[in-house]
Amino acid sequence: MEQNDTYHYQVMRRAIAAIDAAGDAPLPLADLAAEMNMSPAHFQRLFSAWVGVSPKRYQQYLTLGHAKALLRDRFTTLETAHAVGLSGSGRLHDLFVRWEAMSPGDYARDAADLTIRWGWFDSHFGPALVMGTARGICGLAFAAEAGPDEAMADLQARWPKAVYIEDPDALSPWATAALGMTGETQLHMIGAPFQLKVWEALLTIPSGHVTTYSEIAQAIGSPKAVRAVGTAVGRNPVSWLIPCHRALRKSGALGGYHWGLPVKRAMLAWESARADAAPLNL
Q1: What's the rounded mean pLDDT across residues 189-206?
Q2: What is the DSSP string of 120-167?
Q3: What is the value of pTM for the model shown?
Q4: Does residue 3 have a pLDDT over 70?
Q5: What are phi and psi of 113, to 5 degrees?
Q6: Which residues pair with 140 in a beta bridge?
Q7: Taking a C-beta distance cutoff of 8 angstroms, is the pair 241, 140 a contact?
Q8: Distance between CA atoms of 49 and 281, rounded to whole angstroms?
Q9: What are phi and psi of 223, to 5 degrees?
């Protein structure tokens, strides 16, 4: 039976714990597979099929020092991102992300009279709660660490006056494209003007690369507002598609992540592995 993406994430979550427990010493394939209660061959097939690299290579992406390596080797300035044509739309591998923002007046009214449909979907990083208006996805939460009830309450609290309707079928085309990373999906970004500027900047960070909170502050014309930028990054309602996981501290520390640091580490590792494996697939 083909395993689903949520199953893959749970295995990866256990792998992160095993790698952390081992400290600086890398775990041999046989030992890491044993921690997962799998044969080495099964573990090798699972990760090679899912992420495109071997478990030995993938383990390097999951280490705590990987963020520092990303800042050294794959740091991008927002000016560079704009120069390669990512301004105004984002690309996540084979997925195009197009977006529009809610007007400040509508946001100030807490999205009153706005209908938001929602549904649960499987994803590479565990169960995903997708919310959307008629204009596009407005919320994407990951429940593997936070739990489904907390994820639902968190997103609904952002737009307390909206009308919520469970309707996964209506969201399925956007959600399938977004979580499967193929085709095109639309975002309806609902936030305060400053938040929207930060989220737009996040959309310009290429997959497999990272930037810093201070770099984002510089790019949006508010170089002293690093703390406010960090808060806006944390309030991003469309995780993964507006890639707040690609924002790091200058020190190389991961910083926070609204849906749990294991998810952020997994996302960075997954994207790095895909980026390195991509030339092999040409």
Answers
A1: 88
A2: EE--TTS-EEEEEETTEEEEEEEHHHH-HHHHHHHHHHHSTTSEEEE-
A3: 0.83
A4: no
A5: 70, 0
A6: 130, 238
A7: yes
A8: 13
A9: -60, -25
